[in-house]
Amino acid sequence: MSNTSQGAYVTLTVENGIGTICFFHPQSNSLPGALLSKLAEAITEAGNHSAVKVIVLKSEGEKTFCAGASFDELIAIEDKETGLAFFSGFAKVINACRKAPKFIIGRVQGKAVGGGVGIAAAVDYCFATQKAQVKLSELAVGIGPFVVGPAVQRKTGLSAFSQMSINATVFYSAAWAKEKGLFTEVFDTAEEMDAAVSALAATLCQSSPEAMQMLKSIFWEGTENWDTLLVERAGMSGELVLSDFTRQAIHQFKKK
Hints:
The chain has a single domain, classed as 2-enoyl-CoA Hydratase, Chain A, domain 1, CATH 3.90.226. It starts with a strand and ends with a helix. About 50% of the residues lie in helices and about 20% in strands. It is globular and about 55 Å long. The longest helix has 20 residues, at about 80-100. The protein is built from eleven helices and twelve strands. It is an alpha/beta fold. The strands form three sheets. A seven-stranded mixed β-sheet has the order 1-2-3-5-8-10-12, with helices on both faces. Strands 6-9-11 form a three-stranded parallel β-sheet. It has a two-stranded parallel sheet with strand order 4-7. Helix 3 runs parallel beside helix 4 (about 115-120) and helix 3 packs antiparallel against helix 10 (about 225-240).
Protein backbone atom coordinates (compact mmCIF):
# COMPACT_ATOMS: atom_id res chain seq x y z
CA MET A 1 0.00 0.00 0.00
CA SER A 2 1.17 3.53 -0.80
CA ASN A 3 -0.32 6.19 1.47
CA THR A 4 -0.52 9.87 0.57
CA SER A 5 -1.89 12.83 2.51
CA GLN A 6 -5.43 13.24 3.88
CA GLY A 7 -6.22 9.53 3.94
CA ALA A 8 -5.71 9.10 0.21
CA TYR A 9 -4.01 5.96 -1.03
CA VAL A 10 -3.12 3.68 -3.90
CA THR A 11 -2.95 -0.08 -3.39
CA LEU A 12 -1.74 -2.96 -5.55
CA THR A 13 -2.79 -6.49 -4.65
CA VAL A 14 -1.87 -9.61 -6.60
CA GLU A 15 -4.02 -12.73 -6.45
CA ASN A 16 -4.47 -15.60 -8.90
CA GLY A 17 -2.61 -13.73 -11.64
CA ILE A 18 -4.76 -10.58 -11.32
CA GLY A 19 -3.07 -7.36 -10.23
CA THR A 20 -5.75 -5.08 -8.79
CA ILE A 21 -4.89 -1.40 -8.44
CA CYS A 22 -7.24 0.71 -6.31
CA PHE A 23 -7.02 4.45 -5.66
CA PHE A 24 -8.92 6.63 -3.21
CA HIS A 25 -9.15 10.27 -2.20
CA PRO A 26 -11.77 11.54 0.25
CA GLN A 27 -12.64 14.44 -2.07
CA SER A 28 -14.58 12.40 -4.65
CA ASN A 29 -11.46 10.50 -5.70
CA SER A 30 -9.86 13.66 -7.05
CA LEU A 31 -6.19 13.35 -7.97
CA PRO A 32 -3.51 15.57 -6.41
CA GLY A 33 0.04 15.24 -7.69
CA ALA A 34 1.23 12.78 -5.03
CA LEU A 35 -1.63 10.41 -5.78
CA LEU A 36 -1.03 10.65 -9.53
CA SER A 37 2.62 9.68 -9.01
CA LYS A 38 1.66 6.71 -6.83
CA LEU A 39 -0.93 5.59 -9.38
CA ALA A 40 1.56 5.72 -12.26
CA GLU A 41 4.11 3.81 -10.16
CA ALA A 42 1.55 1.11 -9.27
CA ILE A 43 0.57 0.62 -12.92
CA THR A 44 4.22 0.31 -13.92
CA GLU A 45 4.90 -2.09 -11.05
CA ALA A 46 1.94 -4.29 -11.99
CA GLY A 47 3.04 -4.29 -15.62
CA ASN A 48 6.49 -5.55 -14.62
CA HIS A 49 5.31 -8.00 -11.92
CA SER A 50 6.05 -11.59 -12.95
CA ALA A 51 2.97 -12.96 -11.16
CA VAL A 52 0.54 -10.52 -12.82
CA LYS A 53 -1.16 -11.71 -16.00
CA VAL A 54 -3.81 -8.97 -16.22
CA ILE A 55 -4.41 -5.65 -14.42
CA VAL A 56 -7.69 -4.35 -12.98
CA LEU A 57 -7.83 -0.59 -12.32
CA LYS A 58 -10.53 0.73 -9.98
CA SER A 59 -11.31 3.34 -7.34
CA GLU A 60 -12.87 3.06 -3.91
CA GLY A 61 -16.38 4.19 -3.01
CA GLU A 62 -19.75 4.02 -4.71
CA LYS A 63 -20.54 7.47 -6.12
CA THR A 64 -17.55 8.82 -8.06
CA PHE A 65 -14.92 6.95 -10.04
CA CYS A 66 -12.66 9.99 -10.31
CA ALA A 67 -13.38 13.71 -10.07
CA GLY A 68 -10.22 14.65 -11.97
CA ALA A 69 -7.70 17.23 -10.84
CA SER A 70 -7.54 18.41 -7.26
CA PHE A 71 -8.93 21.96 -7.15
CA ASP A 72 -7.00 22.62 -3.95
CA GLU A 73 -3.77 21.86 -5.75
CA LEU A 74 -4.79 23.70 -8.92
CA ILE A 75 -5.49 26.91 -7.06
CA ALA A 76 -2.09 26.71 -5.34
CA ILE A 77 -0.12 26.67 -8.62
CA GLU A 78 1.84 29.91 -8.90
CA ASP A 79 4.26 29.38 -11.80
CA LYS A 80 4.51 27.54 -15.13
CA GLU A 81 6.98 24.99 -13.78
CA THR A 82 4.62 23.91 -11.00
CA GLY A 83 1.74 23.79 -13.46
CA LEU A 84 3.72 21.66 -15.87
CA ALA A 85 4.71 19.28 -13.08
CA PHE A 86 1.12 18.90 -11.87
CA PHE A 87 -0.46 18.23 -15.25
CA SER A 88 2.44 15.95 -16.17
CA GLY A 89 1.10 13.69 -13.41
CA PHE A 90 -1.87 12.83 -15.61
CA ALA A 91 0.52 12.28 -18.52
CA LYS A 92 2.50 9.79 -16.43
CA VAL A 93 -0.62 7.80 -15.54
CA ILE A 94 -1.83 7.62 -19.14
CA ASN A 95 1.62 6.69 -20.43
CA ALA A 96 1.98 4.04 -17.71
CA CYS A 97 -1.26 2.47 -18.95
CA ARG A 98 -0.03 2.68 -22.54
CA LYS A 99 3.36 1.10 -21.79
CA ALA A 100 2.23 -1.65 -19.41
CA PRO A 101 2.80 -4.90 -21.35
CA LYS A 102 -0.43 -6.37 -19.96
CA PHE A 103 -4.08 -5.64 -20.61
CA ILE A 104 -5.72 -3.24 -18.16
CA ILE A 105 -9.40 -3.72 -17.34
CA GLY A 106 -11.11 -0.57 -16.06
CA ARG A 107 -13.92 -0.60 -13.49
CA VAL A 108 -15.92 2.66 -13.49
CA GLN A 109 -18.64 2.60 -10.83
CA GLY A 110 -19.64 6.27 -10.89
CA LYS A 111 -19.04 9.68 -12.41
CA ALA A 112 -15.77 10.41 -14.21
CA VAL A 113 -14.70 14.02 -14.72
CA GLY A 114 -11.72 15.47 -16.58
CA GLY A 115 -8.69 13.36 -15.76
CA GLY A 116 -11.03 10.58 -14.68
CA VAL A 117 -12.31 10.33 -18.25
CA GLY A 118 -8.70 10.19 -19.38
CA ILE A 119 -7.98 7.24 -17.10
CA ALA A 120 -11.09 5.41 -18.33
CA ALA A 121 -9.90 6.02 -21.89
CA ALA A 122 -6.37 4.80 -21.18
CA VAL A 123 -7.37 1.29 -20.04
CA ASP A 124 -7.71 -1.45 -22.63
CA TYR A 125 -11.21 -2.69 -21.77
CA CYS A 126 -13.55 -0.59 -19.66
CA PHE A 127 -16.59 -1.80 -17.72
CA ALA A 128 -19.03 0.70 -16.19
CA THR A 129 -22.38 1.06 -14.46
CA GLN A 130 -25.28 3.25 -15.51
CA LYS A 131 -24.13 5.76 -12.88
CA ALA A 132 -20.87 6.29 -14.76
CA GLN A 133 -21.62 9.62 -16.41
CA VAL A 134 -18.67 11.42 -18.01
CA LYS A 135 -17.74 15.07 -18.36
CA LEU A 136 -14.72 16.98 -19.65
CA SER A 137 -15.15 20.10 -17.55
CA GLU A 138 -11.78 21.76 -18.22
CA LEU A 139 -13.01 24.54 -20.54
CA ALA A 140 -15.49 25.62 -17.87
CA VAL A 141 -12.57 26.56 -15.60
CA GLY A 142 -10.49 28.21 -18.31
CA ILE A 143 -8.22 25.36 -19.34
CA GLY A 144 -8.78 22.42 -21.70
CA PRO A 145 -8.58 18.62 -21.73
CA PHE A 146 -5.17 18.82 -23.35
CA VAL A 147 -3.37 15.99 -21.54
CA VAL A 148 -6.25 13.49 -21.59
CA GLY A 149 -7.31 14.51 -25.08
CA PRO A 150 -5.18 12.05 -27.06
CA ALA A 151 -6.39 9.11 -24.94
CA VAL A 152 -10.05 10.15 -25.14
CA GLN A 153 -9.90 10.91 -28.87
CA ARG A 154 -8.19 7.56 -29.52
CA LYS A 155 -11.18 5.76 -27.98
CA THR A 156 -14.13 7.94 -28.99
CA GLY A 157 -13.00 9.70 -32.16
CA LEU A 158 -12.59 13.42 -32.72
CA SER A 159 -16.32 14.15 -32.95
CA ALA A 160 -17.24 12.81 -29.51
CA PHE A 161 -14.09 14.22 -27.94
CA SER A 162 -14.80 17.69 -29.33
CA GLN A 163 -18.45 17.45 -28.22
CA MET A 164 -17.41 16.77 -24.62
CA SER A 165 -14.66 19.39 -24.75
CA ILE A 166 -16.86 22.18 -26.09
CA ASN A 167 -20.05 21.45 -24.12
CA ALA A 168 -18.00 21.23 -20.96
CA THR A 169 -20.70 21.67 -18.31
CA VAL A 170 -22.77 18.67 -19.40
CA PHE A 171 -22.60 15.13 -18.06
CA TYR A 172 -22.92 12.50 -20.79
CA SER A 173 -24.61 9.22 -19.91
CA ALA A 174 -22.89 5.87 -19.61
CA ALA A 175 -24.97 4.70 -22.57
CA TRP A 176 -23.57 7.60 -24.63
CA ALA A 177 -20.03 6.70 -23.55
CA LYS A 178 -20.62 3.08 -24.57
CA GLU A 179 -21.99 4.16 -27.94
CA LYS A 180 -18.87 6.26 -28.53
CA GLY A 181 -16.50 3.44 -27.58
CA LEU A 182 -15.24 4.72 -24.23
CA PHE A 183 -17.02 1.94 -22.30
CA THR A 184 -17.23 -1.60 -23.61
CA GLU A 185 -20.07 -2.77 -21.38
CA VAL A 186 -22.51 -0.99 -19.03
CA PHE A 187 -24.35 -2.72 -16.19
CA ASP A 188 -27.29 -1.85 -13.97
CA THR A 189 -25.43 -2.64 -10.75
CA ALA A 190 -21.87 -2.70 -9.45
CA GLU A 191 -22.35 -6.34 -8.51
CA GLU A 192 -23.11 -7.30 -12.12
CA MET A 193 -20.15 -5.26 -13.31
CA ASP A 194 -17.80 -6.89 -10.79
CA ALA A 195 -18.89 -10.34 -11.92
CA ALA A 196 -18.05 -9.41 -15.51
CA VAL A 197 -14.70 -7.91 -14.49
CA SER A 198 -13.79 -11.08 -12.59
CA ALA A 199 -14.89 -13.35 -15.44
CA LEU A 200 -12.87 -11.51 -18.09
CA ALA A 201 -9.83 -11.22 -15.82
CA ALA A 202 -9.94 -14.96 -15.10
CA THR A 203 -10.22 -15.75 -18.81
CA LEU A 204 -7.29 -13.51 -19.66
CA CYS A 205 -5.18 -15.17 -16.97
CA GLN A 206 -5.49 -18.37 -19.01
CA SER A 207 -4.49 -16.65 -22.25
CA SER A 208 -1.01 -16.41 -23.75
CA PRO A 209 0.96 -13.55 -22.14
CA GLU A 210 3.02 -13.17 -25.31
CA ALA A 211 -0.06 -12.97 -27.53
CA MET A 212 -1.71 -10.42 -25.23
CA GLN A 213 1.43 -8.29 -25.15
CA MET A 214 1.67 -8.33 -28.95
CA LEU A 215 -2.02 -7.46 -29.27
CA LYS A 216 -1.64 -4.56 -26.87
CA SER A 217 1.28 -3.17 -28.84
CA ILE A 218 -0.88 -3.28 -31.97
CA PHE A 219 -3.81 -1.58 -30.24
CA TRP A 220 -1.51 1.29 -29.21
CA GLU A 221 0.25 1.75 -32.56
CA GLY A 222 0.68 5.41 -33.47
CA THR A 223 1.07 6.60 -29.87
CA GLU A 224 4.83 6.24 -29.67
CA ASN A 225 5.26 10.03 -29.42
CA TRP A 226 3.04 10.38 -26.34
CA ASP A 227 5.97 10.66 -23.92
CA THR A 228 6.69 14.00 -25.56
CA LEU A 229 3.20 14.96 -26.72
CA LEU A 230 1.44 14.63 -23.37
CA VAL A 231 4.12 16.66 -21.57
CA GLU A 232 3.74 19.39 -24.21
CA ARG A 233 -0.01 19.31 -23.60
CA ALA A 234 0.62 19.51 -19.84
CA GLY A 235 2.52 22.74 -20.48
CA MET A 236 -0.56 24.24 -22.14
CA SER A 237 -2.71 23.56 -19.09
CA GLY A 238 0.10 24.63 -16.77
CA GLU A 239 0.21 28.04 -18.44
CA LEU A 240 -3.56 28.58 -18.60
CA VAL A 241 -4.09 27.64 -14.94
CA LEU A 242 -2.20 30.81 -13.96
CA SER A 243 -4.77 33.10 -15.64
CA ASP A 244 -7.15 35.25 -13.62
CA PHE A 245 -10.07 33.64 -15.45
CA THR A 246 -9.11 30.16 -14.30
CA ARG A 247 -8.39 31.19 -10.71
CA GLN A 248 -11.78 32.89 -10.41
CA ALA A 249 -13.55 29.97 -12.10
CA ILE A 250 -11.96 27.42 -9.75
CA HIS A 251 -12.95 29.52 -6.73
CA GLN A 252 -16.54 29.56 -8.00
CA PHE A 253 -16.50 25.78 -8.46
CA LYS A 254 -15.15 25.27 -4.94
CA LYS A 255 -18.06 27.30 -3.52
CA LYS A 256 -20.65 24.98 -5.08
